[in-house]
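Dear colleagues,

I hope this message finds you well. In preparation for our joint manuscript, I am sending the ATP-dependent dethiobiotin synthetase BioD (Nitrosopumilus ureiphilus) sequence together with its predicted structure, so that both groups work from identical material. I would be grateful if you could confirm receipt.
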Amino acid sequence: MDSFFITGTDTDVGKTYVTAGLAVTLRKMGIDVGVMKPFAAGTAQKKGFKSEDIEILSNAAQVNDPESLVNPQFFPIPASPYTASKKLKIKPKISTVLTNFKKLSKLHDLILVEGMGGLMTPIQKNYHIASLIKDMKIPSVIVTSSRIGTINHTLMTCMMCKKYKIPIQGIIINDFENGYPTPQLKRDLEDLTGVKVLGSIPFIKDMSDTSLNRIFKKNLDIKSLLK
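The corresponding structure tokens are as follows:
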């Protein structure tokens, strides 16, 4: 069973919440789901995982994998791995990320890997999130928004996937703010990219297992994701 790299058209498009919803839904289907966020950044939490995103994902998948395995590198400033490593004089742990992914793949049936920012977020000068996905050799799922401008960002993301020869399993629209009507956006994105839109997720207030499972099963084509 393929693992998936959940990437976004930009930062703050809801990758973490989409990944969490997928983790809950697949787990409820009886699939042993693991999660991973290779690089995380921001203000560290005082308790538990340094990254709130890692806490959300681990809770959604109900896994007890060590933080160092799930999140090989945390930067305590809100920046790309490239910028953070330059400012903090810390080298990005790319080889550790790839090794950890292989270890997690042996522990679970499927791994949901959440990226940072967009596809071209720099890790090193000539190594981006797209480079990492290519090295992991797994297909991507693109999370986009419904806001105006999303077509441009989604087209560019799909073009970069094509350039890096990264298979795209589908697009998920995170409809959390006013913008394009989602039926129209779905039509246009599929026509322009040739990539299937797996569905549109409405704004989620309740992050409980029951709520996420219901919303994702109702609004996403899970069969197409897994085929």
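For the figure legend, we might mention the following. Residues 36 and 101 are 8 Å apart (CA to CA). The longest strand covers residues 110-118.

With kind regards,
E.M.
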